[in-house]
Design a protein that fits this description.
alpha/beta, Rossmann fold, seven-stranded parallel β-sheet, about 10% strand, globular
Length: about 290
Protein backbone atom coordinates (compact mmCIF):
# COMPACT_ATOMS: atom_id res chain seq x y z
CA UNK A 1 0.00 0.00 0.00
CA UNK A 2 1.01 3.62 -0.51
CA UNK A 3 2.61 5.63 2.27
CA UNK A 4 1.16 9.04 3.04
CA UNK A 5 3.02 11.79 4.88
CA UNK A 6 0.63 14.21 6.60
CA UNK A 7 1.81 17.42 8.25
CA UNK A 8 -0.19 18.99 11.08
CA UNK A 9 -1.64 15.59 11.96
CA UNK A 10 -1.81 15.92 15.75
CA UNK A 11 -5.32 17.45 15.71
CA UNK A 12 -7.72 19.39 13.49
CA UNK A 13 -8.09 18.78 9.76
CA UNK A 14 -4.74 16.97 9.46
CA UNK A 15 -5.74 14.31 12.01
CA UNK A 16 -9.00 13.74 10.10
CA UNK A 17 -7.12 13.49 6.81
CA UNK A 18 -4.84 10.89 8.44
CA UNK A 19 -7.94 8.94 9.61
CA UNK A 20 -9.46 9.05 6.12
CA UNK A 21 -6.18 7.87 4.54
CA UNK A 22 -5.82 5.04 7.08
CA UNK A 23 -9.41 3.97 6.35
CA UNK A 24 -8.28 3.48 2.74
CA UNK A 25 -5.43 1.27 3.97
CA UNK A 26 -2.51 3.69 3.54
CA UNK A 27 0.51 3.57 5.82
CA UNK A 28 1.24 6.88 7.45
CA UNK A 29 4.01 9.20 8.56
CA UNK A 30 2.45 11.76 10.90
CA UNK A 31 4.09 15.15 11.50
CA UNK A 32 3.44 17.85 14.13
CA UNK A 33 5.14 19.25 17.22
CA UNK A 34 2.96 17.39 19.76
CA UNK A 35 4.69 14.02 19.89
CA UNK A 36 2.27 12.50 22.42
CA UNK A 37 -0.85 13.34 20.40
CA UNK A 38 0.81 11.98 17.27
CA UNK A 39 1.81 8.77 19.07
CA UNK A 40 -1.74 8.23 20.35
CA UNK A 41 -3.22 8.78 16.88
CA UNK A 42 -0.64 6.47 15.25
CA UNK A 43 -1.40 3.66 17.74
CA UNK A 44 -5.13 4.07 17.22
CA UNK A 45 -4.91 4.04 13.42
CA UNK A 46 -2.72 0.92 13.51
CA UNK A 47 -5.21 -0.84 15.80
CA UNK A 48 -8.33 0.25 13.91
CA UNK A 49 -7.16 -0.08 10.32
CA UNK A 50 -4.21 -2.51 10.42
CA UNK A 51 -1.89 0.04 8.76
CA UNK A 52 1.62 1.10 9.79
CA UNK A 53 1.62 4.58 11.30
CA UNK A 54 4.83 6.32 12.30
CA UNK A 55 4.82 9.46 14.44
CA UNK A 56 7.59 11.89 13.50
CA UNK A 57 7.47 14.90 15.87
CA UNK A 58 8.93 17.98 14.22
CA UNK A 59 8.60 21.75 14.24
CA UNK A 60 8.34 22.66 10.57
CA UNK A 61 9.57 26.20 11.26
CA UNK A 62 12.91 24.82 12.50
CA UNK A 63 15.25 24.13 9.61
CA UNK A 64 16.84 20.95 11.01
CA UNK A 65 13.39 19.47 11.71
CA UNK A 66 12.12 20.48 8.28
CA UNK A 67 15.08 18.71 6.65
CA UNK A 68 14.33 15.52 8.64
CA UNK A 69 10.76 15.64 7.37
CA UNK A 70 11.96 16.39 3.81
CA UNK A 71 14.06 13.21 4.02
CA UNK A 72 10.92 11.24 4.90
CA UNK A 73 8.95 13.01 2.14
CA UNK A 74 11.32 11.54 -0.51
CA UNK A 75 9.73 8.14 0.00
CA UNK A 76 6.10 9.26 0.32
CA UNK A 77 3.51 8.28 -2.31
CA UNK A 78 1.07 10.85 -0.94
CA UNK A 79 2.16 14.17 0.56
CA UNK A 80 -0.38 16.23 2.50
CA UNK A 81 0.89 19.75 3.23
CA UNK A 82 -1.69 20.59 5.87
CA UNK A 83 0.10 22.20 8.86
CA UNK A 84 -0.65 25.90 8.95
CA UNK A 85 -1.66 28.78 11.17
CA UNK A 86 -3.20 32.23 11.00
CA UNK A 87 -2.62 35.53 12.73
CA UNK A 88 -5.17 37.55 14.67
CA UNK A 89 -3.50 40.90 14.09
CA UNK A 90 -3.24 42.91 10.93
CA UNK A 91 0.14 43.33 9.24
CA UNK A 92 1.05 46.67 10.80
CA UNK A 93 0.43 45.30 14.31
CA UNK A 94 2.29 42.01 14.24
CA UNK A 95 5.89 41.50 15.28
CA UNK A 96 8.26 40.41 12.55
CA UNK A 97 8.85 37.18 14.50
CA UNK A 98 5.11 36.34 14.19
CA UNK A 99 5.17 37.04 10.45
CA UNK A 100 8.33 34.98 9.94
CA UNK A 101 6.87 32.08 11.89
CA UNK A 102 3.65 32.05 9.86
CA UNK A 103 5.45 32.37 6.53
CA UNK A 104 7.90 29.61 7.50
CA UNK A 105 4.98 27.31 8.34
CA UNK A 106 2.49 28.25 5.58
CA UNK A 107 4.89 29.00 2.71
CA UNK A 108 8.44 27.69 3.19
CA UNK A 109 7.68 24.29 4.76
CA UNK A 110 5.09 23.13 2.17
CA UNK A 111 7.33 24.31 -0.68
CA UNK A 112 10.33 22.46 0.82
CA UNK A 113 8.39 19.21 1.25
CA UNK A 114 6.91 19.46 -2.22
CA UNK A 115 10.40 20.03 -3.59
CA UNK A 116 11.61 16.92 -1.76
CA UNK A 117 8.71 14.66 -2.73
CA UNK A 118 7.90 15.59 -6.32
CA UNK A 119 11.06 14.39 -8.16
CA UNK A 120 10.87 10.88 -6.65
CA UNK A 121 7.13 10.68 -7.36
CA UNK A 122 7.78 11.62 -10.99
CA UNK A 123 10.55 9.04 -11.16
CA UNK A 124 8.31 6.32 -9.71
CA UNK A 125 5.47 7.42 -12.00
CA UNK A 126 2.91 7.72 -9.20
CA UNK A 127 2.00 10.11 -6.45
CA UNK A 128 -0.54 12.53 -5.07
CA UNK A 129 0.06 15.89 -3.40
CA UNK A 130 -2.57 17.75 -1.41
CA UNK A 131 -1.76 21.35 -0.46
CA UNK A 132 -4.19 22.78 2.04
CA UNK A 133 -5.12 26.30 0.96
CA UNK A 134 -8.08 28.53 1.82
CA UNK A 135 -10.83 30.62 0.26
CA UNK A 136 -8.75 33.48 1.66
CA UNK A 137 -6.39 32.72 -1.26
CA UNK A 138 -9.05 33.96 -3.70
CA UNK A 139 -8.98 37.56 -2.52
CA UNK A 140 -8.98 39.87 0.48
CA UNK A 141 -11.50 37.97 2.63
CA UNK A 142 -9.07 38.14 5.50
CA UNK A 143 -8.14 41.72 5.16
CA UNK A 144 -4.98 43.31 6.36
CA UNK A 145 -3.10 40.13 7.24
CA UNK A 146 -0.54 38.04 5.39
CA UNK A 147 -2.55 34.84 5.93
CA UNK A 148 -4.51 35.12 2.67
CA UNK A 149 -1.31 35.87 0.76
CA UNK A 150 0.37 32.81 2.29
CA UNK A 151 -2.56 30.63 1.20
CA UNK A 152 -2.53 32.26 -2.27
CA UNK A 153 1.05 30.97 -2.55
CA UNK A 154 -0.16 27.43 -1.87
CA UNK A 155 -2.90 27.69 -4.52
CA UNK A 156 -0.67 29.43 -7.08
CA UNK A 157 2.17 26.92 -6.64
CA UNK A 158 -0.23 23.99 -6.99
CA UNK A 159 -1.80 25.46 -10.14
CA UNK A 160 1.51 26.45 -11.66
CA UNK A 161 3.00 22.96 -11.25
CA UNK A 162 -0.18 21.05 -12.09
CA UNK A 163 -0.62 22.90 -15.39
CA UNK A 164 2.99 22.30 -16.45
CA UNK A 165 3.42 19.91 -19.37
CA UNK A 166 5.62 17.62 -17.26
CA UNK A 167 2.89 17.13 -14.69
CA UNK A 168 0.02 16.99 -17.18
CA UNK A 169 1.73 14.07 -18.90
CA UNK A 170 2.49 12.30 -15.65
CA UNK A 171 0.24 10.17 -13.42
CA UNK A 172 1.45 12.32 -10.50
CA UNK A 173 -1.22 14.85 -9.52
CA UNK A 174 -1.39 17.95 -7.34
CA UNK A 175 -4.50 19.33 -5.68
CA UNK A 176 -5.03 22.52 -3.68
CA UNK A 177 -7.70 22.04 -1.04
CA UNK A 178 -9.51 25.38 -0.93
CA UNK A 179 -11.17 25.46 2.47
CA UNK A 180 -13.69 27.70 4.10
CA UNK A 181 -14.17 27.93 7.87
CA UNK A 182 -13.76 24.45 9.31
CA UNK A 183 -14.12 23.25 12.89
CA UNK A 184 -10.63 22.75 14.33
CA UNK A 185 -8.32 24.53 16.76
CA UNK A 186 -7.24 26.98 14.06
CA UNK A 187 -9.24 29.99 15.29
CA UNK A 188 -8.45 29.32 18.95
CA UNK A 189 -4.71 28.98 18.24
CA UNK A 190 -4.71 32.23 16.23
CA UNK A 191 -6.87 34.02 18.82
CA UNK A 192 -9.71 34.67 16.36
CA UNK A 193 -13.45 34.55 17.16
CA UNK A 194 -15.19 31.38 15.84
CA UNK A 195 -17.16 31.73 12.60
CA UNK A 196 -20.95 31.76 12.32
CA UNK A 197 -22.36 28.21 12.30
CA UNK A 198 -23.85 28.63 8.84
CA UNK A 199 -20.36 29.11 7.44
CA UNK A 200 -18.63 26.33 9.36
CA UNK A 201 -17.84 22.86 7.99
CA UNK A 202 -16.98 19.75 10.04
CA UNK A 203 -13.33 18.82 9.77
CA UNK A 204 -14.06 15.10 9.18
CA UNK A 205 -16.34 16.04 6.26
CA UNK A 206 -13.74 18.18 4.45
CA UNK A 207 -11.04 15.57 5.16
CA UNK A 208 -13.05 12.69 3.70
CA UNK A 209 -14.06 14.72 0.63
CA UNK A 210 -10.46 15.79 0.05
CA UNK A 211 -9.09 12.25 0.40
CA UNK A 212 -11.73 10.97 -2.00
CA UNK A 213 -10.84 13.75 -4.47
CA UNK A 214 -7.12 12.89 -4.59
CA UNK A 215 -7.97 9.23 -5.26
CA UNK A 216 -9.80 10.10 -8.49
CA UNK A 217 -8.06 9.03 -11.68
CA UNK A 218 -7.79 12.72 -12.56
CA UNK A 219 -7.88 14.66 -9.29
CA UNK A 220 -9.05 18.29 -9.44
CA UNK A 221 -6.30 20.92 -9.36
CA UNK A 222 -8.28 23.18 -7.02
CA UNK A 223 -10.90 21.48 -4.87
CA UNK A 224 -13.51 23.28 -2.75
CA UNK A 225 -15.37 20.64 -0.69
CA UNK A 226 -18.68 22.50 -0.27
CA UNK A 227 -21.17 24.17 -2.60
CA UNK A 228 -21.50 27.17 -0.26
CA UNK A 229 -17.78 27.83 -0.41
CA UNK A 230 -17.55 27.08 -4.15
CA UNK A 231 -19.98 29.95 -4.66
CA UNK A 232 -18.23 32.17 -2.15
CA UNK A 233 -14.74 31.48 -3.56
CA UNK A 234 -16.06 32.15 -7.09
CA UNK A 235 -17.61 35.44 -5.96
CA UNK A 236 -14.52 36.51 -4.08
CA UNK A 237 -12.36 35.73 -7.09
CA UNK A 238 -14.48 37.58 -9.64
CA UNK A 239 -16.36 40.36 -7.83
CA UNK A 240 -14.90 43.88 -7.94
CA UNK A 241 -12.57 44.31 -4.94
CA UNK A 242 -14.63 47.05 -3.18
CA UNK A 243 -17.59 44.64 -3.02
CA UNK A 244 -15.44 41.83 -1.64
CA UNK A 245 -14.30 44.20 1.07
CA UNK A 246 -17.82 44.52 2.49
CA UNK A 247 -17.60 43.67 6.20
CA UNK A 248 -20.22 40.93 5.82
CA UNK A 249 -17.81 38.93 3.66
CA UNK A 250 -14.69 39.72 5.59
CA UNK A 251 -13.02 39.29 8.94
CA UNK A 252 -11.62 42.79 8.82
CA UNK A 253 -9.21 42.96 11.72
CA UNK A 254 -7.92 46.27 10.45
CA UNK A 255 -11.36 47.77 11.20
CA UNK A 256 -10.69 47.36 14.94
CA UNK A 257 -10.00 50.72 16.55
CA UNK A 258 -6.39 51.45 17.40
CA UNK A 259 -5.77 51.61 21.15
CA UNK A 260 -4.93 55.04 22.51
CA UNK A 261 -2.00 53.72 24.56
CA UNK A 262 0.50 50.86 24.34
CA UNK A 263 2.76 49.61 21.54
CA UNK A 264 0.01 49.75 18.88
CA UNK A 265 -1.26 53.20 19.77
CA UNK A 266 -2.07 55.52 16.86
CA UNK A 267 0.52 58.29 16.32
CA UNK A 268 -0.71 61.70 17.47
CA UNK A 269 -2.23 63.74 14.64
CA UNK A 270 -0.38 67.00 13.95
CA UNK A 271 -0.39 69.03 10.76
CA UNK A 272 0.96 65.91 9.05
CA UNK A 273 4.67 65.49 8.36
CA UNK A 274 6.87 62.83 6.84
CA UNK A 275 6.92 60.81 10.07
CA UNK A 276 3.20 60.45 10.12
CA UNK A 277 2.33 59.94 6.48
CA UNK A 278 5.46 58.57 4.87
CA UNK A 279 7.24 60.69 2.28
CA UNK A 280 4.16 62.62 1.13
CA UNK A 281 2.47 65.42 3.00
CA UNK A 282 -1.29 65.05 3.19
CA UNK A 283 -3.34 67.08 0.75
CA UNK A 284 -6.41 68.97 1.90
CA UNK A 285 -9.25 66.45 2.25
CA UNK A 286 -6.64 63.68 2.07
CA UNK A 287 -8.19 61.78 4.95
CA UNK A 288 -11.10 60.88 2.73
CA UNK A 289 -8.89 59.95 -0.22
CA UNK A 290 -8.18 56.39 0.88
CA UNK A 291 -6.28 53.90 -1.17
CA UNK A 292 -8.61 51.77 -3.26
N1 LIG B 1 -9.90 25.73 10.11
C1 LIG B 1 -10.20 26.55 9.13
O1 LIG B 1 -11.22 27.25 9.17
C2 LIG B 1 -9.31 26.62 7.91
C3 LIG B 1 -9.78 27.32 6.79
C4 LIG B 1 -8.99 27.38 5.67
C5 LIG B 1 -7.76 26.76 5.65
N2 LIG B 1 -7.31 26.11 6.76
C6 LIG B 1 -6.00 25.46 6.70
O2 LIG B 1 -6.12 24.14 7.14
C7 LIG B 1 -4.86 23.67 7.63
C8 LIG B 1 -5.06 22.91 8.92
O3 LIG B 1 -5.53 23.81 9.88
P1 LIG B 1 -6.53 23.38 11.06
O4 LIG B 1 -7.76 24.16 10.86
O5 LIG B 1 -6.61 21.91 11.20
O6 LIG B 1 -5.74 24.04 12.29
P2 LIG B 1 -5.36 23.43 13.72
O7 LIG B 1 -6.51 22.71 14.32
O8 LIG B 1 -4.77 24.59 14.46
O9 LIG B 1 -4.21 22.35 13.39
C9 LIG B 1 -2.94 22.77 12.94
C10 LIG B 1 -2.03 21.59 12.86
O10 LIG B 1 -0.74 22.06 12.43
C11 LIG B 1 0.25 21.65 13.39
N3 LIG B 1 1.31 22.66 13.50
C12 LIG B 1 1.16 23.96 13.88
N4 LIG B 1 2.36 24.55 13.91
C13 LIG B 1 3.28 23.62 13.54
C14 LIG B 1 4.68 23.63 13.39
N5 LIG B 1 5.41 24.72 13.65
N6 LIG B 1 5.30 22.49 12.99
C15 LIG B 1 4.58 21.36 12.76
N7 LIG B 1 3.26 21.29 12.87
C16 LIG B 1 2.61 22.42 13.26
C17 LIG B 1 -0.53 21.50 14.69
O11 LIG B 1 0.10 20.57 15.57
P3 LIG B 1 1.12 20.97 16.76
O12 LIG B 1 0.54 22.16 17.47
O13 LIG B 1 1.14 19.71 17.57
O14 LIG B 1 2.42 21.27 16.10
C18 LIG B 1 -1.82 20.88 14.18
O15 LIG B 1 -1.65 19.51 13.99
C19 LIG B 1 -3.99 24.93 7.74
O16 LIG B 1 -3.07 24.96 6.66
C20 LIG B 1 -4.96 26.08 7.64
O17 LIG B 1 -4.37 27.23 7.09
C21 LIG B 1 -8.07 26.02 7.89
Amino acid sequence: MATALVTGASYGIGADIARALAARGHDLVLIARSGEALGRLAARLEAEHGVKAHALPADLTVEADLERVAEAAHGADILVNNAGAGLSRSFERTTWAQEQHMLALNVVAPARLLHAALPSMLQRGKGRILNVSSVAAAGPVWQGTTYGASKAFSLALTESLAHSRRLRRSPVALTALVLGHTVSRFHEVAGIAPSPRLLTLPSSYVAQRAVRAIHRRRPPIAYVPSLRYKLLAGLVRHLPRPLVALPALADDFTALPFPETGPYARAPRSGGGDDEYGVLSPEPGGDRQRQR
